[in-house]
Amino acid sequence: MADEKKNQTDDAQPEQNDPAVSTEEEPSSPPAEAGEEEDADSFVEDPAFEIDYKGDCAYEVKVTIPFANETQKSAEMFDELKKEAELPGFRPGRAPRKLIERKFGKAVKGEVEAKLVSAAFEKLVKDEDLRPLGMPDIDGLEEQKDRPEGEPLAVTFKFEVAPRVELGDYKGIKVERPVVEVDDDEVSEALDRMRSRYAVFETVEEGKAAEGDQVIIDFLGTVDGDEFAGGSASGYPYILGTHRFFPEFEEALLGCSSGEELTCAVTLPENTPNAELRGKKADFTIKVNEVKRRKMPELDDTFAKQAGYESLDAMKTSVAEQMREGLSERSNQIAETRALKAVIETSSYEMPTGLINNLAEGIYRDQVSRLRQSGSSAADIEAREDALRKEARDAAEMDIKRMVTLNKIGEVEAIEITDDDFEQEVATIAQRSGMQSDAVAQYLEEGDRRSQTEGRLYRAKAMAVVMENAQIKDTEVKQEELEAQADANDA
C-alpha cells in the first residue's frame, strides 16, 4: 500500500466534482510520453537549474541543458531512423547516415528538444521533491530554433505546486457539539409527516378552498387580448400554499368554490421564457372544476403495516431511532466542521493563485446558475457580482485549506487506506442505495472514482483522529436551533 498511501497524501487539491474545475494548464510543449520517465536520469551532463520561488506556490526556474545531451539524443534517434527509414533508391536500413540527417534533421532537432525539456522538468520535480499542479508554461523554446550549433538549450519553467500547510495543533481541540433529545411530541410530528405522505385528496362537496387544498382548474391567459405560449391549461391540479404559481393566482383561488369562475391580472416576471412578455400585464380567466381536501390515514396498526412496519408500536420505536441517528449525524457534522476550522485557524498556508482562481470561478458559475433558476434577473445578478465573486473566492480558499489540512494530518499520522476500507465503503453505499455490492464496486472502479473514493476515506480517517482527540462539550438545543446551525454549517 505504499504507493496507494502516497497517492492520498500527494493529492493536495480539491476533488474535481460539479463544477469540474481543472487545476492543470495546457503545456507549452509536449509532455514526456508514457514510459519515458527514465529520460530524467539519462542526461550525459545534468541540466543546471536556477530556482526562483515567487511565493504563493509559484516557481520560475531557468533551465540550461548542456549541448552534449542533444548530441547523444540526436545520435540515438538517427540510429533508430537508419534502421527503418525508407529513402528513394535505398532499401530499408541502407540509406546513408548523412542523407538521413539532411532529410530528418529539423524534425529530429525539434523532437529532441521537446524530450530534453520534458526530461529536465521531471528531473527538477524529482530532485527538489516538488508537487506541480500540472505541466509548466515554458518560455524560450520557440527561440531555440535559431540557436547556434553547440550552444546549450535554455528555457524557463513557470508553474505552481500543490498547496502547503504548516499544521497547528490538531489534538486537544475544544469544540461545542449541539445535541437534541428526541421527545414524544417530535416523534408525533414525524409520524404526522409520514401520514401526510400517504394522504389522499377527496372532493369537497361544499365549502371553500383553504391553504393545503387542491383545486382542479382550467385557466387561460392573454396579453393585449392575445393568448401566449404556456399561459393556458385544462384540468390542472394545484395545491394552495405551494406558491408555484403567481401570487395573484393564490390570492384569487383562496376561498373559491367548485364551479366558480375567477379573473386576475398578473405582471409577468423577468424570468418569463418569452423575453417579449417580460414585465407585461397578463389577464387570466380561471374556472374552478373541483376542490379537494387532503385526508390523512388514521394512526393505527393498519397504517403502520401500510408503511412497512409490523405494528404501530414498532413504527414509533423505529421512527424515534431514525430521528436520533439523523440528529446525531448532523450534530457530529457541525462539531467536525468547528473542529477543523479551529485547526485551520492555528495553521499557516501557502496557496497557489491559479488553483484558487480556477476553483472560485467554478463556484461563482454555480452560484449564478442557481440564482437564474430561482428567478433572479440578470440585472440583480450583475449588481451582486462583486459580492458573489468574493464569496466564491472565500469558499474556494476554505475548500482547499480543509483538504490540505486533512491530507497533512493523514500524512503525519501515517494513515493508510486498505482494500478492506474500500470494500466496507462499497458495502455501505450498497446498503444505503439498495444496489448490489458488485454493481457499486464496478462503478467505483471506473476512471478515477476509486482514487477519489479512497481520498475521501483517507480524509475521513484524518478527521476521525481530530475528533477522537478533541475536547467535546455537548450542549442541548432545540431541533430548530440545530437545523439553523446545520444550515450555517453547510453554508
How would you portray this structure in words?
The protein is α+β, with helices and mostly antiparallel strands and 491 residues long. The chain folds into 3 domains: 31-160, Alpha-Beta Plaits (2-Layer Sandwich); 174-180 and 310-490, Trigger factor, C-terminal domain (Trigger factor, domain 2); 200-295, Chitinase A, domain 3, CATH 3.10.50. Helices cover 47% and strands 19% of the residues. The protein has helices spanning 2-10, 67-84, 97-127, 184-197, 247-253, 301-306, 312-345, 353-373, 378-383, 385-412, 419-433, 437-445, 449-468, 479-490, and strands spanning 48-55, 58-65, 137-139, 153-160, 164-166, 174-179, 200-203, 214-223, 226-239, 261-267, 281-295, 348-350, 471-476. The strands form 4 sheets. Strands 7, 8, 9, 10 and 11 form a 5-stranded antiparallel β-sheet that branches. Helix 2 crosses helix 3 (97-127) and helix 10 crosses helix 13 (449-468). The two termini are 36 Å apart. Residues 1-38 have low confidence and may be disordered.
